[in-house]
Amino acid sequence: MTESRVTEPRHPENTLAGTGATEAGDNPLLLANQICFALYSATHAMTKAYRPLLDDLGVTYPQYLVLLLLWERDGRSVKELGEHLSLDSGTLTPLLKRLEGQGLVSRSRDRADERSVLIHLTVQGKALHDKAECLPARITEASGCSTADLAGLRDQILRLRNDLTAALRKT
Amino acid sequence: MTESRVTEPRHPENTLAGTGATEAGDNPLLLANQICFALYSATHAMTKAYRPLLDDLGVTYPQYLVLLLLWERDGRSVKELGEHLSLDSGTLTPLLKRLEGQGLVSRSRDRADERSVLIHLTVQGKALHDKAECLPARITEASGCSTADLAGLRDQILRLRNDLTAALRKT
DNA sequence: AGATAATTTATTGCCTACGATTTGATTGTG
DNA sequence: CACAATCAAATCGTAGGCAATAAATTATCT
């Protein structure tokens, strides 16, 4: 690597710097101007930040989200997990089977309603809770933001999500 | 639908309402408290909002992002597209082949550097730009927010992404 | 009660996403 | 010139994600 300095930015920053508010700042079709892309790429960055931490736990990011719910309250149905995560059974069923294969959860029919499948943490699944406790702090640290700032941003993002979901329901 | 009223909330809102700032508001492992989940679910809601609009164009969401980049500047390499979208060739190659199969782009080796594959819009690919022009406005409308609010939120999210990416680079 | 309609649940098939490896082209060095 | 190192795409295996479909339960009607 002799002169890889001025070649090209490794990762185009998509900041609004440059151009001094020419036409570019107004063009709604510009990738950098779209909030959908901001969410899309921030989610990817977040997933990447979590990956090495989750590798230690031996689970993927969506699997971690399921475990978070079960640590809050055990013995939920597939349906209920799907409502909280906005995922349907087509996504959850294979995911839960993998968690079952790792010995972290058990899947069993609800005897009161044979249509439902109930998910319970195993002893190992419960034990993983302790190892996961530090993750949010690690991510907050990596973000370089205060917890208050992150909480504010989180609430704005959730509000946007709720508005979008509500608008979709009306359609 | 006789008495399906008080059964259960259709979509748990993950707002911070309830509990009146008991222990729950502080527990960093609570799903609702995690900004990663806010991003994750907002991205999904956004994708869902775009889907019917993109169905009219006949493309998926990531395909749309690629087209946005090409509409800004045509004839980019796979590598360059991947840098902007944080995607590698393993994702882009099949995606671009599908776009090629739909007659929206062409793929050809760069004659100056045969390692690179250049992606060019076809006539139809360029024509699609006009039909896509209205999409961002439709989404803004659905979000119920002002463009200024959305721009502010977008910049905060991009800042978070940049901080996370920078932190990852150091590791 | 028995038959049919409506709702809900879980499973299939296709696309996106990523890590790891492979192949071919280019650049750097002795 | 030859060799090694580097780089870009493509390929393969695994996993997440969603639309459409199939299976099962519940509700309704005669």
Task: Characterize the structure shown.
Chains A, B: This is MarR family transcriptional regulator. The structure is a homodimer of 171-residue chains. Chain A folds into 3 domains: 8-55; 58-128, Winged helix-like DNA-binding domain superfamily/Winged helix DNA-binding domain (Arc Repressor Mutant, subunit A); 134-171. Chain A is 58% helix and 10% strand. Chain A has 7 helices and 3 strands; from the N terminus they run ααβααββααα. A 3-stranded antiparallel β-sheet of chain A has the order 1-3-2. Chain A is globular and about 60 Å long. Residues 1-22 of chain A have low confidence and may be disordered. The interface between A and B is large, with 68 and 68 residues. The structure holds a DNA duplex (30 and 30 nucleotides).
Topology, pairings included?
2 copies of one chain form a homodimer.
Chain A (H helix, E strand, L loop, with lengths): L34 H23 L3 H12 L3 E2 H8 L3 H13 L3 E6 L2 E9 L1 H10 L2 H9 L3 H24 L1
The structure holds a DNA duplex (30 and 30 nucleotides).
Task: Tag the structure with descriptive keywords.
DNA-binding, mainly alpha, homodimer, 3-stranded antiparallel β-sheet, disordered N terminus
